[in-house]
Specification:
Elements lengths: L7 H8 L4 H8 L1 H21 L8 H21 L7 H17 L12 H32 L6 H5 L1 H40 L6 H34 L5
Helix pairs in contact: 1-2, 3-4, 3-5, 5-9, 6-8, 6-9, 8-9
């Protein structure tokens, strides 16, 4: 994309310009960097868990601290029932965080600066949320929730339940759009700013360094916000109105 810093994929694409390889690299650029991050996380987790000890080493201790923190975070919002969502939310957070920060690595790119990547993540949350809600309440309970759980005279009016159904459907469909656009827009803006500052050359190094610290903080915040909203959505879907 014009205005972005060059990365290893765009460099290879330019070197192979006019070939099928160049077209492939341009088409799947964001997916390639996403797979690189997946590979990096997988290697780190494997090395940390290959020799689990009663007295953990540094890598194992960091992983255990992270898992414990995510467990407290999710269960603090959803309750004990949220423990089954800890692997999903935990993976979501660390994956988004690594992708956000990858743009600071020379010749790498933040895949989360692309809407296709953030929308894919938001859709994972959306479909898993619907599945979890149906599994928790059953089909009838799920539909009853969409209708606003009408009872008595409210149910007899028909109009109110239908209106609540439309509102709930619109609300559910808007969630992945807002989740994906919020993350994409913030990371894309950070990447564009870094590219502009890098164009100043040596004179822009102090500002670039300071902005890098801001980008690190913003990357963490955006990963937290995405994971927090996803957790809240699960909490809302799994909690009965009576509770």
């Amino acid at each position: 994309m014009q205005g972005e810093l060059p990365n290893i994929v765009t460099i290879l694409a330019e070197k192979t310009h006019g070939t099928p390889i160049s077209a492939f690299l341009h088409t799947w650029e964001n997916l390639i960097f996403s797979l690189i991050i997946i590979s990096a996380i997988s290697i780190i987790v494997f090395l940390a868990s290959v020799k689990v000890r009663a007295v953990p080493g540094r890598a194992q201790a960091v992983c255990e601290l992270y898992v414990g923190g995510i467990d407290d975070f999710v269960c603090g919002i959803i309750g004990p029932a949220g423990r089954k969502f800890v692997p999903f939310i935990g993976t979501l957070f660390i994956y988004i965080l690594f992708m956000n920060l990858s743009g600071l690595v020379p010749f790498m790119k933040s895949s989360t600066s692309s809407w296709s990547t953030t929308m894919a993540l938001a859709l994972c949350v959306f479909f898993y949320l619907q599945y979890a809600s149906i599994r928790e309440h059953g089909i009838i309970g799920y539909v009853d929730h969409l209708l606003g759980r009408p009872r008595g005279i409210i149910a007899a009016t028909v109009f109110v339940p239908i209106m609540m159904l439309v509102l709930h459907i619109v609300s559910e469909l808007v969630r992945p759009i807002s989740l994906s656009l919020r993350l994409r827009s913030n990371i894309w803006g950070d990447d564009m700013l870094m590219a502009v500052l890098a164009g100043f050359g040596i004179k822009g190094v102090p500002i670039l360094f300071f902005n890098s610290l801001i980008v690190v903080l913003a990357s963490i915040v955006q990963a937290v916000v995405f994971s927090l909203l996803a957790t809240i959505y699960f909490a809302l879907a799994l909690t009965n109105e009576e509770e």
